[in-house]
Each structure stands twice: as C-alpha cells, then as structure tokens.
Amino acid sequence: MNVDNVLNEIQDLNLTYLLLAQRLLQEDYATALFRLKIDEPMAEVLLSLSARQLSRLARTNQFLFRLGLDDAGQLQALTNHKREQGLEQTHAALLMTATGDAVAARQG
To answer: Which residues span the membrane (predicted)?
Structure first.
C-alpha cells in the first residue's frame, strides 16, 4: 500500500468520523458526549461546522480520533474473555467508562 492510498484512507475515515459525530450529537446529545468522550464545548464546535469545514478538517494526514482504550490489558479483556450472551456490550461499556474515569483523574 503506498503513502497516497494510506493518506486517502485516513482522510476518508476522518470525514466519516466527523459526520457520525455530528449525527450522534444531533440525535442524542448526552449519549453522544459519553460515546465520543468529548466535552460540551467540543460538541458545540462540532455541531457548528459546515460540510465544507468538515471536509477541510478531514483532509489531514493524522487521525482526528483515538482509540478509547488506554492500555493493552483493557483490549485483551474485551477480546479474550468469553461473556454470557448479551453481556458483551455491557462489559465493554463498563471497561470504557472505567477508562474515561481514569483519564479524567489523571488530568484533574
């Protein structure tokens, strides 16, 4: 895979992420804040961006989002342990919440 293809894919993912973020915020603001792990000022900026601004923002060579897991142990816990059917999403949500709480504690 050449560098141009990788950059195009990053830009496509960025635009997809930004459009999804806007849609989530419009449909269920509080849940979107939690799922996107962003604060209200960031949400308001995202909601205010036009399609042209989103497109311009997406055209960077860096991802605009990051993996919500902060350590390999959490990723392993989500992928390697069998859970009762129907509890996988609950388990993932609990791990992701714990990650957000730990990050907030370190920043605070």
So the answer is: none
